[in-house]
Description:
- The chain has eight helices and nine strands.
- It is of the alpha/beta class.
- The strands form two sheets. It has a seven-stranded mixed β-sheet. A two-stranded antiparallel sheet has the order 1-2.
- Helix 2 (about 35-45) runs antiparallel to helix 3 and helix 3 packs across helix 5.
- The longest helix has 21 residues, at about 1-20.
Amino acid sequence: MREFWQSFAALAGVVCAFAAVGVVAQPGQNDPFAAQRTAMVEEQIRGRGIEEPRLLNALRTVPRHEFVPDSLRDDAYGDEPVQIGSGQTVSQPYLVALMADLLELDGDEKLLEIGTGSGYTTAVLARLARRVYSIEIIDDLAERAQGVLDDLGYGNVEVRVGDGYRGWPEEAPFDGILVAAAPAEVPPPLIEQLKVNGILVAPVGGPLQDLVVIRKTPEGLERRQVDVVRFVPMVGRAQEDPEGENPNFP
Length: 250
Ligand code: SAH
């Protein structure tokens, strides 16, 4: 009997070890990056005037270091973009915060994101909205991002590989759209897939871009420019039909 309990205890230990591996560093008291994350929010986000409590809470919670390559974890909370492979970067924390803030989220939204990249912005949005659909054109990045999001338990997120120019018609319309790669002009399908009263945030133009906010009202589109930013260009059809003028483009 004693042997049975010993092997039972050993087995339970193994099961626990597996369970512990399955839960990837949800931030807690033992998170070695917790202090850096708190400092990031205070200095880079609150310090620049973003006050929305749900957003600040999301940024205090999402483990940004999980979304960057292992060798760059120590740089994850700096005030700048970080390389994520395939020649791409995860945006500077302040830009992620600013774009999420501009979407004016209250928790019940269905969102579309173009340019999943590392999945970090997707995770922040997933904490602020009901559901997030995200499109990434580089399959390695999409796969890695979906893996990290799954490991961290973000069940309200779907990532797919594709050209975000066309949006995600099967899931449209969206309450908000965040575009994280810069087209010369906002792709018309994205405007079409925005709900009335929905908000789209996108960098437009290049190589430095205007950060543009478009609100769809019953009367038409309201457009304003809030900042000058630098994102990677939107590749794919956005570069082949840059002004979005040819509705018959294949
Ligand atoms: N917000 C991301 C970073 C985005 S970087 C993060 O939190 O990590 C911009 C991403 O847009 C890159 O990964 C790039 O591959 C992707 N991209 C560029 N053009 C695209 C297109 N047409 N459709 C979808 N994704 C695109």
